[in-house]
Write a structure and sequence with these properties.
single chain
Length: 149
């Protein structure tokens, strides 16, 4: 079963999200997700195997320029994750479909996403499900002054 997540799902959602984005603490993730769950421009969809939350997808409406698009707002797949034990069953595709449907209901004519250059599984997933590559980016950073203690 897939349904739109709400605040009562916050802990389950945070646990799954930490597996996709592990560079956060549980409390940091929980605070960020709580804010997003209250934001009408964001949506999370949860997949349940019985009572077990086994996957999720996050999407948002982006009103700024989105690479390769020609309209605004654009629906944006921020992330999709399925437990390893549940992969290969088409769950991620169903979660993506829910995000696309939500974006269309919210006035979007286009849907976009991104992935790291080295994430070959995500790249292949996107291509298999109708996305086309529109750009590649290498990001740079430099310090302007020493960090203060």
């Amino acid at each position: 079963m897939i349904r739109k997540a709400n605040l009562t799902d916050l802990n389950a959602l945070a646990e799954l999200a930490l597996r996709l984005w592990p560079n956060h603490t549980f409390n940091e993730m929980r605070l960020e997700l709580e804010s997003l769950l209250k934001n009408p421009s964001a949506a999370f969809f949860l997949y349940f195997d019985g009572d077990l939350p086994a996957g999720f997808a996050q999407c948002q409406l982006r009103h700024d320029y989105v690479e390769g698009t020609h309209s605004s707002p654009v629906g944006y797949l921020e992330g999709v994750f399925v437990l390893k034990s549940h992969r290969g069953r088409g769950i991620a595709v169903k979660l993506l479909s829910q995000c696309e449907h939500w974006a269309a209901e919210n006035g979007c004519f286009e849907f976009a996403s991104d992935c790291e250059l080295t994430n070959e599984a995500s790249y292949a997933f996107h291509l298999r499900h109708g996305f086309r590559e529109v750009n590649r980016v290498i990001c740079f950073c430099k310090k302007l002054q020493p960090e203060q203690d």
